[in-house]
User: Fold this.
Amino acid sequence: MKICVLVKEVPDAAVEKRIDEGSMRLDRSGEKNLNPFDTHAIEAAMQVKEGGVVDVEEVVAVTMGPDTAVRALHKAVSLGADRSIHLTDDALTGSDCCATGYALARVLEAESPDLVLCGQQSDDGECYTMGAIVADHLKMPSLTQVIKMDVADGTLTCERQAEYGYDTVEVDLPAVISVGDAINEPRYPSLKAIMGAKKKPLDTKSIGDASIEADRVGTGGSRTSVLGINPPPPKAAGEIIEDEDTNETVEKIVSWLDERKLLA
Amino acid sequence: MSGILVYALHYEGAFNKNSLGAVSEGARLAGQAGGECAAVVVGGDDLTDELCASLGAYGAAKVYRGKADEGLAQPVVDVMAKVIEDNGYSYALFGGGLLGFEIGAGLTARLNAGVTMEVTEVKAEDGKLVAVRPILQDSAVVDSGYVEEPGIIIGRLNAFEATENGSGGAEVEDVDFEISEFSTRCRMVKRGEQRGADVNIEDADLLVAGGRGLGKAEGFEQLEALAGAMGGAVAATRAVVDAGWYPYAAQIGQTGKTVAPKLYLAAGISGAIQHKVGMQSSENIVAINKDPNAPIFEYSDLGVVGDLNKILPKLTEAVKARKGG
Assistant:
């Protein structure tokens, strides 16, 4: 069985994110990291591989992004992926969800995976939709926000929270599963794995290599357009207390609650 | 514009509140931009003519009914793609929630259509729709337009209010569609299972809610003590419910309950959007968190930066003393 894991490079959580006014896109300069939600998808792949129920030949990390995105792949490999694929091309710049999903699906199609895993969302775009978009292109069954996944021969038994409580769903392989962050606690890479990550096979592909139609990607191929970016509706800033002396802090909280008659 | 198609989710004979909100919003937008608002429902025999027609009260002129398994997204994608193909609707609108995201995403791929998600407002401009979406933890809002029709709009939970502005029963039409082979390869084994004890958080005036910052399940004991002293109830985030620290019935947010108490005290909750949508209508929001950059401080009325383990026991004692005196 082959597992592909979709990963993304995102601005580091500590970096203040801003929109570049010229391109109206997210300014992705500054410190970057592997999308933290994706580490759960890699961990889920590793648990299937190490679980011994099915035989996993390889785990392949797949990303789309500029040159720097290679670092996200190295991180994915240090967490256990056997090799990685980097889809990168200037023609992809500015792709929206629809275009990105199409492009990633073309790369995955060539790999013929038995299971595609991804994280529940990216830390920057927060679209929550990539798994389901890719699945429809690949004509595979799909489920998102999965918090428990048991694999048996040819079938997954998945659990997730939906509108009315917990659902248990059986999914036939091949399938695309987007995992919730509660599914596992991702491992930390060993120093040896970090050092060795750059030596694992990394395949760089252009849109031509992946048979991606140029007019379906990039700014030109996107189906949505940003008409404007505005500040959020104003909300009065709340009061902030730094806890230095806890007795004093507690006194302030109680009097704040009291003023609003919440302790009556 | 040639109409808006809205997905309406149902369970045990009732439509979901967010879906009803989306139908109302679809009707409002159709009134402004031209065209009609229609709804799509997918399920089994519980989708009676009467139940379907009742969406007319929320403004649906027509209801398309597809027979397929409930609670799964891909059969709905098949039905909606067929309805849009046959009738040329200009937009597909979803009220948010897990299935709305999945169906909207599937349709995006199927129809090569633009999608905007987490939409908090939709504007009709020159016969077209513009979706307004907050981004980067709500630090900016984007006006998103569509290059071509159809366009797909996935609302944020509770973004659209359900209003009975329609005129009576909607016309009901069965959809003759072909289910995709891959749509049959997900099977619902058990739906809507409730786990853990039953806790009623929706009626509480005072709620003390805990998140991952509590560190461990036992952290909830401190919250129960504080809630007890205040005369309130305890709620929890999805992360800690999924981790098994607290029962599902107490969950606030995107996949949990929506609350609007007089006081919402958030302990160790960073305040991601999925949580925010479930509690932002609370009258007073107090947040205690050790991370000064936690997003929750951006929408709390009183923010306390500090260690929960130091503050909670003392706060409980102080509240007890205040209530006793």
